[in-house]
Amino acid sequence: PPAAWRQRIQWENNGQVYSLLSLGSQYQPPRRRQAAEAAGSPILLLRNNGTLPDSGTGTDGNRSSTGAGGLPPLSNFRPGREDVMVGDDPYNPYKYTDDNPYYNYYDTYERPRQGSRYRPGYGTGYFQYGLPDLVPDPYYIQASTYVQRMSMYNLRCAAEENCLASSAYRADVRDYDNRVLLRFPQRVKNQGTSDFLPSRPRYSWEWHSCHQHYHSMDEFSHYDLLDASSHRRVAEGHKASFCLEDTSCDYGYYRRYACTAHTQGLSPGCYDTYNADIDCQWIDITDVKPGNYILKVSVNPSYLVPESDYSNNIVRCDIRYTGHHAYASGCTISP
């Protein structure tokens, strides 16, 4: 019948069968306009059947009949997934998403049932066993440490967050004056059994307009440059306040936190990575003379968040600074 053919605009792609259903696009001649059953408003429905139809039984019209009366439900509404996170750039090569533009759909410890709904805050305090344990990666720091010179004009955002030495804030400093920066990356893993959550409640997170994200901790990391012989601080370190997220995870673990205003944290088995080219991922060494130094990187330095082990929170690297270049070696975790 004509009504059945109206629902069989169908095509197949990669083993998936798609149907374009339209229940109001058929022309009705005048003799049927006075019928008791009024025609409904046009509805255009794009639907994915998900499985190949059974080609051995019935006609096209019979195969399209689902539900009472042989018609599919007139709705394309799909319940939202509360455990799916957005706010992540799917094209960022440093974020492993398993070729999926969204975060992984499953919790670290179990796979949710299909269609299950979780209370708000899912993943932040629901599956917690023990304590987190942050461990910085010393080899990641050693592999990509370098010196860069930048003008004050390009450091305006960093200056707002106090990421420069005190000499950069003098009144006679001009926009075209250069600063010398010791840049290095950082990758922190949570090898504990519980989520590492921000120390501040969500309502007190600070919005940074320059970087366009919320900072959920006052001091997640601290950077210092020490003299190699006296261990005296020679460059003014600063506390790095970042947003926390699961940049990547080990095999078998799933990302559940994004750098947004709603969910921030670090899941067990996952890494929070800060590349060397982002703002404030440096120490201002403009006033430092060439020589041998020690780069000290501390995570959770004030112990604001409880951990199962604080002895693995510090990385020390030997730095040789020539005045133009810097060479990092011997990066190790030390208490």
From TrEMBL:
Its cofactor is Cu cation. Transmembrane segments: none annotated. It is found in: Secreted, Extracellular space. The keyword DNA-binding does not apply. Keywords: Copper, Disulfide bond, LTQ, Metal-binding, Oxidoreductase, Secreted, Sulfation, TPQ. GO terms for biological process: collagen fibril organization. Its EC number is 1.4.3.13. The keyword Metal-binding applies. InterPro entries: LOX-like_protein, Lysyl_oxidase, Lysyl_oxidase_CS. It catalyses: L-lysyl-[protein] + O2 + H2O = (S)-2-amino-6-oxohexanoyl-[protein] + H2O2 + NH4(+). Its main location: secreted. Residues 48-66 have a biased composition (Polar residues). Belongs to the lysyl oxidase family. Mediates the post-translational oxidative deamination of lysine residues on target proteins leading to the formation of deaminated lysine (allysine). This is Lysyl oxidase homolog.
